[in-house]
């Protein structure tokens, strides 16, 4: 699928989720059997590990549809970058989504300086989160920062320039379930 078609399918899935009209695609025994010998996800999602943001459900996707990387604050450290590059090379997805969410605890902790057990995560967050006017603005800034950092990586940049890959950011609203994609 081309990147725009994949993004559209995720947007449609999110709309189904918001409306409470989930189709639960690819969540059957046949899907388990089909993917047992390999995978070909259409998108990579770099999201926060927050339990309130279940990525496959939020986008109404199923087994094998998404390559999901979850880490507090949806940060881009070496393991996340290597996971993205691995998935791009091994499986050929055409979309990368950096997914932040409202009221992110990692960003709130970094903004307050109470980073406690997450110093390496806080170090990976956008340097601008502390100066943002609100937690929401900091979440948006961090998502935009990660998208920008990804687009600078040579392998990613080449795929984007050849229109084989799109990298986008989005923010999930906890109360509504809506993902707003950043332009």
Your description of this structure?
- The chain is α/β, with parallel strands linked by helices and 183 residues long.
- It has a single domain, classed as 3-Layer(aba) Sandwich (Beta-carbonic Anhydrase, Chain A).
- It is 45% helix and 15% strand.
- The chain contains eight helices and five strands, in the order ααβαβαβααααββ.
- It has helices at 3-19, 29-35, 55-58, 78-91, 105-112, 119-124, 135-152, 154-161; strands at 43-47, 66-70, 95-101, 166-172, 179-181.
- A five-stranded mixed β-sheet has the order 2-1-3-4-5, with helices on both faces.
- The longest helix is centred in the C-terminal third of the chain and has 18 residues, at 135-152.
- The protein is globular, with a radius of gyration of 16 Å.
Write the layout of secondary structure elements.
Layout: H1 3-19, H2 29-35, E1 43-47, H3 55-58, E2 66-70, H4 78-91, E3 95-101, H5 105-112, H6 119-124, H7 135-152, H8 154-161, E4 166-172, E5 179-181
Parallel strand pairs: 1-2, 1-3, 3-4
Antiparallel strand pairs: 4-5
Summarize the structure.
The chain is an alpha/beta fold. It is built from eight helices and five strands, in the order ααβαβαβααααββ.
| Side-by-side strand order of the widest sheet | 2-1-3-4-5
What is the typical, i.e. mean, pLDDT? 93
C-alpha Rg (nearest Å): 16 Å
Indicate the overall shape: globular
**End-to-end span in angstroms?**
21 Å
Assign the CATH class.
Alpha Beta
Q: How many individual β-strands?
A: 5
CATH topological fold name? Beta-carbonic Anhydrase, Chain A
CATH-level-2 architecture: 3-Layer(aba) Sandwich
Strand content: 5-15%
Could you state the order of secondary-structure elements as H and E? Answer: HHEHEHEHHHHEE
The CATH superfamily label reads: Carbonic anhydrase
Major sheet: 5 strands, mixed
């Amino acid at each position: 699928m081309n990147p725009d078609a994949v993004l559209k399918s995720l947007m449609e899935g999110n709309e189904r989720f918001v409306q409470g009209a989930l189709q639960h695609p690819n969540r059957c025994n046949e899907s388990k059997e089909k993917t047992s010998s390999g995978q070909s996800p259409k998108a990579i999602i770099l999201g926060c590990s927050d339990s309130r943001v279940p990525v496959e459900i939020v986008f109404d996707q199923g087994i094998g549809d998404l390559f999901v990387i979850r880490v507090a604050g949806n940060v881009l450290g070496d393991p996340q970058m290597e996971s993205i590059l691995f998935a791009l090379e091994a499986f050929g997805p055409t979309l990368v989504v950096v997914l932040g969410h409202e009221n992110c605890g990692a960003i709130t902790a970094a903004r307050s300086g109470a980073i406690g057990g997450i110093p390496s995560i806080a170090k990976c967050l956008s340097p601008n989160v502390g100066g943002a006017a609100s937690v929401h603005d900091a979440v948006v800034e961090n998502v935009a920062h990660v998208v920008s950092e990804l687009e600078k990586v040579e392998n990613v940049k080449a795929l984007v320039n050849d229109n084989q890959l799109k990298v986008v950011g989005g923010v999930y609203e906890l109360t509504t379930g809506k993902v707003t994609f950043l332009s």
